[in-house]
Amino acid sequence: MQNIHPKLTLVGAGPGDPELITVKGLKAIQQARVILYDALSNNELLEHAPANCLKRFVGKRAGMHMYSQDEINRMIVKYALTYGSVVRLKGGDSFVFGRGQEELTFAQQFNIDTEVVPGITSAISVPGINRIPVTARNVSEGFWVLTGTTQSGSLARDLAYAVQADTTVVVLMGMGKLEEISAAYIAQGKGNVPAAIIQNGTLPDQKVGIGNVADLKEIALRDNLR
């Protein structure tokens, strides 16, 4: 009988380009017995897994969840107790709107060892690869990272405060809220703030639209951004 050592490793896969995963994250994939991966992690990374590794897609595509978060939590525990090393592969960083903490806490209740391998979050890297710094001297002394889609489906309430601060604002998963984002800036007299919409950041089919925040909807239509 093989001695099973249950372990969960949360691995941030980075923003999309498979070369932007960390060395430590890649090593975890190479040693995994089971990989549970999301839609936002690049499938090319799975090629580095052992031949006998069990790979399961547990992400969301086109607004459809294959599994609920509770089901994913239970799968992590089941596979860790059965196979040993489970890698939970998530796009970006597991702790930036990735529900990584929920999965970590659930696994720890079953005395499963846990490890976190941070990933490169799209909030910084996607603007950066397009030469848009989130901080720049005499321009922006900080940055906010907000979700465009909270659990209730609404825009993050903190946007109203972020607009008031003279800093860079990064909205993830915000394509369905462009008009609301524009309205928040216009209401503060800041409709002329420069803005970018970036689709599939760091990937070969990346698309970028540039303009002012007041015109986000028009930018998306003009450049066919989704």
Please describe the topology of this protein.
Blueprint: E1 7-12, H1 23-30, E2 34-37, E3 54-57, E4 60-61, E5 64-65, H2 69-83, E6 85-90, H3 100-108, E7 113-117, H4 122-129, E8 143-147, H5 159-164, E9 168-172, H6 178-187, E10 194-199, E11 207-212, H7 216-222
Parallel strand pairs: 1-6, 1-7, 2-3, 2-6, 8-9
Antiparallel strand pairs: 4-5, 10-11
Task: Summarize this structure as a short list of keywords or feature phrases.
two-stranded antiparallel sheet; elongated; 11 strands; single chain; alpha/beta; 226 residues; 5-stranded parallel sheet
Largest sheet data:
5 strands, parallel
Order of helices and strands: EHEEEEHEHEHEHEHEEH
Task: Trace the largest sheet across and list its strands.
Answer: 3-2-6-1-7
Helix content: 25-40%
CA-CA gap between termini = 51 Å
Kindly estimate the percentage of residues that lie in beta strands according to DSSP: 15-25%
Mean pLDDT score: 94
How many distinct helices?
7
Radius of gyration: 19 Å
Shape: elongated
Beta-strand segment tally? 11
Low-confidence stretches: none
* Sheet/helix structural class: alpha/beta
Would you kindly provide a written description of the structure presented here, covering whatever features stand out?
The termini are far apart. The strands form 4 sheets. The chain has a 5-stranded parallel sheet, sandwiched between helices. The protein has a two-stranded antiparallel ribbon with strand order 4-5. Strand 4 and strand 5 form a beta hairpin. The mean pLDDT is 94. Helices cover 28% and strands 23% of the residues. The chain is elongated and about 65 Å long. It has helices at 23-30, 69-83, 100-108, 122-129, 159-164, 178-187, 216-222, and strands spanning 7-12, 34-37, 54-57, 60-61, 64-65, 85-90, 113-117, 143-147, 168-172, 194-199, 207-212. With 226 residues, it is of the alpha/beta class. The protein contains 7 helices and 11 strands.
